[in-house]
Specification:
Layout: E1 3-7, E2 18-24, H1 37-47, H2 51-54, E3 63-70, E4 73-83, H3 90-106, E5 111-114, H4 123-133, H5 144-149, H6 154-157, E6 159-163, H7 169-194, H8 202-210, E7 218-223, H9 225-231, H10 234-240, E8 248-255, E9 264-268, E10 270-274, H11 294-309, E11 314-324, E12 336-338, E13 344-346, H12 354-369, E14 373-378, H13 382-388, E15 393-397, H14 400-413, E16 417-419, H15 424-428, E17 437-438, H16 446-455, E18 463-467, H17 493-500
Parallel strand pairs: 1-6, 2-4, 2-5, 5-6, 9-11, 9-14, 10-11, 13-17, 14-18, 15-16
Antiparallel strand pairs: 3-4, 7-8, 8-11, 12-13, 15-18
Helix pairs in contact: 3-4, 4-7, 7-11, 10-12, 11-17, 12-16, 14-17
Length: 507
């Protein structure tokens, strides 16, 4: 893993590493550098360049490598354009940091020194996230020739020095370590989500979850198909019974308070592959349905992060893991299924399977654990992509205070979410002539009617539902983000760590 350390400016030798200097459109270079004789000389040389050589480099996201002479030594400098200073925010810093990291990787500079070109709360955190998350690669299934060429990856051989005042060294290093722990959890999620369906099925996903027991305060319980049936989780059983890979319900407990504080319930949809079942999907891009487990992988990533950070909170995570396949034992359109909470569902489309497994999980988790609140993550509806595109997740729930806090945290982490309404009219669309409800509400408002379905299973518990169908992986229309390489993004992990380490007294 990349090594990120902190050092005082006086202890840095500019010739030992690639020096990164942020240059604003107004020409400003952080005054911090001018306080040191060695770096002040470098700044003077940059200032001496003609304006026409630097005018484009100052623009946001542009860069240039300079070779400067400092007392006979060659100093290599990466000029990074930071654009207009007053437009800098945490996500723009995160994006710039990713560009820095990728440029250094491209040019194979294994040692980098970064003086502060930023200021403001959370900017160090954003810098580290951009530097680290951008380096992610998924090479587990590349051939041996490729692996032999990559014996020691740039990511494992890179040392980044963050220049900070000696008085802030310990605090800065602690923040760096925390950010890297969160990034590691994002990598864990990305690896699971990116893995193909012949490798990650319900059983192997459960085994990965079970490995989290090596972390302090974590215990993991796995329910098999017979236990799922015995408990009356017929929504999960119905979706999973069409596959030779039997369904599992993964329950991860994290207890890190000395009180009987009510836990927060997290639920994550993990359809390890989704053919649509009897209502089979078109073959075009069906390969992307390996990502239909992303909600569950996100929740596992959250649990890994909070355990490694030792956040003083109680959390229960439930991940229903199924494979939705067509076969002689599959559930069918026209079936009526009695769910865990006793309500019945008329199945009109077997490709609306995510809400079936989430509903049972939410109802079971709320009944058994009486949580403070419930939050679920799911790649639930293509309608969410139609409504919000591939850069914004939908959020819907029954508690505006909970949703507002989640929205506030999303602004810090750059994981964009947008609240959709949950009016009674959407509940009306689910009315069935033969059961408590239908599992789909028609073509209109598909994202909202899916959430309306789930609302029947949470009672009065404060609840928020994230539809991450557009944001869980990079796809057509995804905006370029230097810190989100192609594939799984791990969307929501950083946001939820912020939420879980915060104050939930408003609930």
């Amino acid at each position: 893993m990349v090594q990120i350390i902190v050092s005082d400016i006086d202890k840095i030798e500019p010739a030992d590493a690639l020096l990164v200097i942020g240059l604003a459109e107004d020409g400003r270079i952080h005054d911090y550098l001018r306080l040191n004789k060695k770096f002040d000389e470098i700044v003077k040389q940059i200032d001496s360049f003609e304006e026409e050589h630097l005018i484009n480099v100052k623009k946001y996201g542009k860069s240039m490598i300079l070779g400067l002479n400092l007392h006979g030594s060659l100093i290599r400098v990466l000029i990074m354009g930071i654009g207009e200073v007053n437009k800098l925010n945490s996500d723009r810093v995160r994006y710039l940091a990713g560009l820095i990291s990728l440029k250094c990787k491209e040019l194979n500079f294994p040692r980098i020194a970064i003086p502060p070109f930023y200021s403001g709360p959370g900017y160090l955190e954003s810098l580290i996230e951009g530097l680290v998350l951008s380096q992610y690669e998924f090479n587990d299934f590349k051939d041996m020739e490729f692996k032999n060429q990559q014996k020691q990856s740039y990511y494992d051989n890179c040392t980044i020095t963050i220049i900070a005042d000696e008085s802030q060294r310990d605090m800065t290093q602690a923040q760096i370590n925390k950010s890297m722990t969160i990034c590691e959890a994002v990598f864990y999620c990305r690896n699971l989500s990116n893995s193909p369906p012949n490798v990650i099925n319900p059983e192997s996903l459960a085994a990965s979850a079970k490995s989290l027991e090596s972390l302090k305060n974590i215990t993991v319980e796995i329910l098999d198909q017979s236990q799922i049936t015995e408990l009356g989780m017929n929504g999960i059983n119905s979706v999973g019974k069409g596959s030779v890979n039997e369904p599992k319900v993964i329950i991860v407990h994290y207890n890190n308070t000395k009180t009987d504080q009510k836990p927060i319930l997290l639920v994550g949809k993990a359809v390890t592959f989704d053919t649509g079942g009897i209502s089979i999907k078109p073959s075009d891009r069906m390969d992307e349905m390996k990502y239909d487990k992303s909600g569950g992988c996100t929740v596992l990533g959250i649990m890994r992060a909070i355990a490694n950070l030792a956040i003083p909170i109680n959390v229960v995570a439930i991940i229903p893991a199924v494979e939705n396949m067509p076969s002689g034992s599959s559930y069918r359109p026209g079936d009526i299924i009695r769910m865990y909470n006793g309500k019945t569902v008329e199945v009109l489309n077997t490709d609306a399977e995510g809400r079936m497994i989430l509903a049972d999980s939410l109802a079971y988790g709320i009944s058994k654990y009486s949580p403070k609140c419930a939050i679920d993550f799911a790649t639930l509806t293509g309608a969410c992509i139609i409504a919000l595109g591939t850069n914004v997740a939908g959020i819907i729930g029954n508690n505006d205070k909970l949703i507002q806090v989640l929205k506030d945290n999303s602004k810090v982490t750059g994981e964009k979410i947008w609240q959709l309404p949950l009016y009674d009219e959407f509940l009306d669309l689910l009315k069935s002539n033969v059961a408590s409800m239908k599992n789909i509400g028609g073509r209109t408002g598909g994202t909202i009617t899916a959430a309306a379905f789930l609302s029947h299973f949470v009672d009065k518990t404060p609840w928020a539902h994230f539809d991450i169908a557009g944001t869980a992986w990079t796809q057509d229309g995804t905006a370029e983000r230097s810190y989100n390489p192609k594939g799984s993004t791990g969307f929501g992990i950083r946001l939820m760590v912020k939420f879980l380490e915060g104050d939930q007294d408003f609930l």
